[in-house]
Please model this.
Amino acid sequence: MAALFCRSAGGLLRPFRLVPCMVAAGRQYTAGQYQYILVEKKGEHQNVGFIQLHRPKALNALCDGLMIEVGRALDQFEADSQIGAIVITGSDRAFAAGADIKEMQNRTFQECYGGNFLAHWNKVSLVKKPVIAAVNGFALGGGCEFAMMCDIIYAGEKAQFGQPEILLGTIPGSGGTQRLTRAVGKSLAMEMVLTGDRVSAQEAKQAGLVNKVFPVDQVVSEAIRCGEKIASNSKLISAMAKEAVNAAYELTLAEGCRLEKRLFHSTFATEDRKEGMTAFVEKRKADFKDK
Ligand code: HXC
Model:
């Protein structure tokens, strides 16, 4: 049987065997479901979904099995009404060192094109709940692309971001050329994609790829804290806000503003909009129904 893990109270990873890992809001997460990731709920109110990539020997190289498991965990958190935000992290050494090169080495064009290789990798970009990447160590190739599919990136001060595919005779294949260019601009994106050079956490922050940089041991807790803040708001309204910001990637300014206006108008059909404004007027904290 594959090695399974669950985190003990002391934070240590312990081998685990097909035993329920946690029970939450009518939904049961079973540690045995996952071989390559650790899945938990975090935060004071257990309202932050937490996914830790866990292939330490391969620096969290993103093999197909790992990405399928991430997709499954995201589905679980999307369906869990207790969860209001999701944090994805790796280890101190590596968020993820890229797609699994050993798995890709002998693939043919026919297999890639015919099988639509990597088609399911963008799953995290389709999730409605806000997703925060907490990045320590290497975020390279598919690892950098995976982080960029998240909504917010927090980085540890030793994190390194890069798109080194050119050194392997290929190019980014999961949005790297697109999302990196939108995040840092054409010149730096070109340099990174064409040379394979990495940038530090500080450079990534300066360039707009990363929101905040923290000491290595604080990145995850800060990401969870951000997740808790988001989860304390209305989930319904957060999903609308996320949809509107993401539309800025895809639409013209006029189309984007039109979509934003429609979504803004539709918040007035919700109880949470009414509660938010009423709470302000009554000088109390809002108690959102959909939180
Ligand atoms: C498979 C990987 C891997 C990867 C590291 N490993 N990266 N295995 N795929 N992407 C494995 C190594 O083979 C090794 O296992 C172990 O992890 C430790 O790696 P080392 O190289 O010994 O560590 P270190 O010297 O510290 O160097 C770390 C590193 C280097 C700089 C991150 O491993 C590296 O350059 N990795 C490849 C980075 C990369 O090119 N990423 C892009 C991949 S292509 P063994 O068992 O051999 O000791 C890509 C395409 C995306 O992502 C397309 C769309 C998704």
